Automatic annotation (TrEMBL):
Broad EC category: transferase
Cross-referenced NCBIfam families: sensory_box (TIGR00229)
Kinase listed as a keyword: yes
The organism of origin for this protein: Methanolacinia petrolearia (strain DSM 11571 / OCM 486 / SEBR 4847)
Protein name: histidine kinase
Molecular function as annotated in GO: phosphorelay response regulator activity; protein histidine kinase activity; protein kinase activator activity
Enzyme Commission (EC) number: 2.7.13.3
Domain annotation Histidine kinase: ranges: 166-372
InterPro entries on file: BphY/WalK/GraS-like, HATPase_C_sf, HATPase_dom, His_kinase_dom, PAS, PAS-like_dom_sf, PAS_fold
Protein keywords: Kinase, Membrane, Transferase
PROSITE patterns given in the database record: HIS_KIN
Catalyzed reaction equations: ATP + protein L-histidine = ADP + protein N-phospho-L-histidine
The keyword Kinase belongs to this UniProt entry's keyword annotation: yes
GO biological process, one term: regulation of DNA-templated transcription
Length: 372
């Protein structure tokens, strides 16, 4: 019995292909089938497939094979059925997971009808799928561990924030008590007592500002909203309010700038930095200049000024941002917060000589904010 010419293109396919006619006689057997079974085309041509492989007489197979030949319905045998349509020869060297499709085929002239058994060896594919599943399981396990760890960190942060809030509240209560007693002493006409009282009040106000600064750091870590339009006057006046016993001058501008709710911390911390270096008799002035699409803002003081090394440290830290954050922290908490906030607002801090009248020393901290 001759092999139909139609099947010639199937001879070297990387899958097993067997064709049977309506009588279930084998009419084609490609080289992959020869490799898997150890039987060549001449051995099987014209023989009943059920004679060659008796296990195929089972209804499960014959019904599907007949449906394919006579009703032209394609059939599919999943590897999960555990059924090897064509048992591989032991000399092939390894067991084989098979996935089989039965496809009806009719010659162009309609003279003959066949069923094509297309058999795939999916052993390697199954191993890859199994390896993928294991990898996926490991990834899911690692992800769950990460989620668990992040949850623990989140809960720990929440607890830390609660402690911080309670501690800040208690410290502020003590500061208010100190300020209350100091205010009573302030009415004294004794010069030395007035001086000491002012020192007590300033220390309490600075303590309050440190608490506010720590709270600002927490807010910085928690939020990253883009700059919005805010009134400049409100931020400056709120910063001045935190140092009610310090001589801070400012002329209202009505300006609006692109910043955020934490802009007040920029002014409060720059005021605090001036007091840190200049002491309780420090005078401070806030100057605003209109410069095209932005406002230039200067904070002048009459303190002792900063050394060249201190200026260089602050300027370089402001420019290098995250890459030099440890060095930035070395400038102090207040300037650290200022630089972080200005970076968020698209600005940076510069340092010059104070412009206060009659001042030979002192510092000028400057930055620019876009108009809002």
């Amino acid at each position: 019995m001759n092999t139909p010419e139609d099947f010639g293109v199937l001879i070297n396919l990387p899958v097993g292909v067997c064709a049977v006619d309506t009588s279930l006689n084998i009419r084609f057997w490609n080289r992959r089938m020869e490799l898997w079974t150890g039987l060549i085309m001449d051995d099987v041509s014209g023989r009943l497939i059920t004679e060659l492989f008796p296990h195929l007489e089972a209804d499960l197979f014959l019904d599907r094979l007949n449906d394919s030949i006579y009703r032209h319905i394609p059939q599919y045998f999943s590897s999960s059925l555990g059924l090897s349509i064509i048992p591989e020869d032991k000399t092939y060297g390894r067991p084989m997971e098979q996935r089989t499709s039965i496809v009806p085929y009719r010659r162009n002239d309609g003279s003959d009808e066949y069923a094509l058994l297309i058999i795939e060896d999916i052993s390697d594919l199954k191993k890859e799928v199994e390896a993928y599943r294991k990898m996926k399981d490991r990834a899911i396990m690692a992800l769950n561990e990460q989620i668990k760890a992040e949850k623990e960190v989140f809960e720990a942060n929440g607890e830390a924030n609660l402690y911080l809030e309670v501690m800040s509240h208690d410290l502020n209560n003590y500061n208010n008590v100190v300020l209350g007693y100091a205010s009573l002493l302030e009415s004294s006409k004794e010069p030395n007592l007035q001086k000491y009282t002012k020192g007590i009040i300033l220390a309490a106000e600075r303590s309050f500002q440190i608490i506010q600064s720590v709270s600002a750091v927490r807010k910085l870590k928690a939020a990253s909203s883009p700059p919005v339009s805010v009134p400049l006057d409100n931020a400056v006046l709120e910063g001045i309010k935190r140092y009610s016993h310090v001589d801070i001058s400012y002329t209202m501008t009505g300006a609006k700038v692109k910043a955020g709710s934490l802009l007040v911390e920029v002014f409060a911390n720059l005021f605090g930095n001036s007091l840190r270096t200049g002491g309780m008799d420090t005078k401070i002035a806030v100057v605003v200049e209109d410069a095209s699409d932005r406002y230039l803002i200067h904070i002048d003081d009459n303190g002792p000024g900063l050394s060249a090394e201190e200026k260089d440290s602050i300027v370089h830290c402001s420019a290098e941002k995250e890459a030099n954050e440890n060095k930035l922290r070395s400038t102090g908490l207040q300037l650290y917060i200022v630089n972080k906030l200005l970076d968020r607002y698209g600005s940076r801090l510069t340092i010059g000589e104070s412009s206060l009248k009659g001042v030979t020393e002192g510092s000028r901290f400057s930055f620019a904010l876009k108009k809002g």
